[in-house]
Amino acid sequence: MLSYPFMQNAYMAGTLIAIISGIMGVFVIARNMSFLTHTLSEIGFAGAAFGIFMGWQPLNGMLLFTTISSIGVGELGAKSSRRENSITAISALAIGLGILFLSLADSNASYATGILFGSVIGISRANVVQMMILSISVLVVVLVVYRYLKFDSFDPIGAQVRGLWTRTLSVIFLVLLAFSVSVAAQIVGSLLIFILLTLPAAAAKYFAHTVGMMISVAVGFSLVGVWLGLYLSYVTNWPVSFFIAAIEVIFYFSALVYQRIRA
Amino acid sequence: MTESILQLNHLSFAFPDKRVLTDLNYDLKRGDFLSIVGENGVGKTTLMRLILQELKPTSGTLAFLPNRQAVPVGYVPQFRNVDTEYPLSIQDFVGLNFAKVGLPWLSGKERQRVNQILTETKLFDIRRRPLGQASGGEKQKAYLAQALLDEPSLLILDESTASLDPVAKTELLDLVKQINEQQQLTVIFVTHDIPLARHYADHYLFLSPGHYEAGNISELTNEKVGEMNNA
């Protein structure tokens, strides 16, 4: 299987995606941003469609759209009830725009399904290199702000009274999230990105009690999901995103059951 | 004469639609245990936000001595968003306060400091318990430990005992009093529990709408409380 270049690329890209998603996911869960992550992936779809319409790489369109909107959401500010409604509105507009750009771009349907549902064969070596650069940038920034991000995510009130620059931190985090969403979409597709960015970390919460351990467990869960998913997809010729989704959901519900039994 | 660490000079604050603090003067000395008391809505929290520099005085000044940097402030707020599923262990939660650019994990020295503060706050034995599964009193102690981690010279307890049962209240305040006496930690204890203030504080600052009164805690008699609240 690994003698095919497209499978090599898929495994390399998948590994990057799993690592980034596992790390970012822990903060997404701690900051209660599952819903926003979901919206960012829809915005990513619009961005990718726009990219195709403009004749760019879909990934570049995605990066553009998700980054701009994540900064916009950060500026929308604190009022969470209002934010939730705004996010719904933005998300509706994003899907609409995505459909519009796809139809204007006059591209074939398989391209659209590729963006929405992900694909294994579509990833070139150049894509892998670009994803690697993006992933490393995300990792470096996370590493630099790690302790601040940890404090602000796991104890926002404590961080605020301590005088941490929490507003700047949330904008930085949202931009990192935008990058991660765009990278992850390459394999699992924009409809299912939030699976890798939320479920492994949500499950990890029940097994680990330090941020470092939660990250390790979450990365582990997403690696298993992606690797096994790619293998099963290769063997059965079924879509890889289906397998990844199924595996992560199994992890998550097992974690809930484990928690129930222990309690 | 002990040194002052915080001086309020003719401090006033008004929200656009409401005047909250009027011409407040107070000189807080190092090592003092000051209780700020008063009914809800008289400006206790506003005063804390002024001290934390989240708000700016409308007029007058609020000055740390010799300067702001010399007086690190630890703050234990009344509410924290920690639910029963909150995953971090008490130890990891306390260590969050080492917020700076550095290695993702804590250095040996930092770990030692965390353990020291956990021992001081009597949390060492349960340090691995997830904070979400700790009792109310243990949670407040963990918040206290986190605030004490980087050795503040001023500790603010903002209604930190309000939701605790009597035993946990005493336990927490005994602990604070002990650190206050042994390490000359200055404490501001915001509460509307007058008997509790009387038991632990050295001085009081009584806020009521439009005016205030300050003095030795022994002067805070029941008659005075009645008088102030009806004024």
From TrEMBL, chain A:
Organism: Secundilactobacillus mixtipabuli
Protein name: Mn/Zn ABC-type transport system permease protein
Source domain of life: Bacteria
Family listed: Belongs to the ABC-3 integral membrane protein family.
Membrane recorded as keyword: yes
Keywords: Membrane, Transmembrane, Transmembrane helix, Transport
Membrane-spanning intervals of the chain: 6-28, 35-56, 85-102, 131-149, 169-199, 211-232, 238-258
Pfam family, one: ABC-3
Cellular location(s): Cell membrane; Membrane
Membrane topology, record value: Multi-pass membrane protein
Major site of localization recorded for this protein: membrane
Biological process terms in GO annotation: transmembrane transport
Keyword Transmembrane helix: yes
Assigned GO CC terms: ATP-binding cassette (ABC) transporter complex
TrEMBL record, chain B:
Alphabetized UniProt keyword annotations: ATP-binding, Nucleotide-binding, Transport
UniProt superkingdom: Bacteria
Molecular functions (GO terms): ATP binding; ATP hydrolysis activity
A Pfam family the protein falls into: ABC_tran
InterPro entries cross-referenced by the UniProt entry: AAA+_ATPase, ABC_transporter-like_ATP-bd, Metal_Ion_Import_ABC, P-loop_NTPase
PANTHER family in the cross-refs: METAL TRANSPORT SYSTEM ATP-BINDING PROTEIN TM_0124-RELATED (PTHR42734)
Name of the protein: Mn/Zn ABC-type transport system ATP-binding protein
Species, as recorded: Secundilactobacillus mixtipabuli
Lineage: Bacteria, Bacillati, Bacillota, Bacilli, Lactobacillales
Gene: znuC
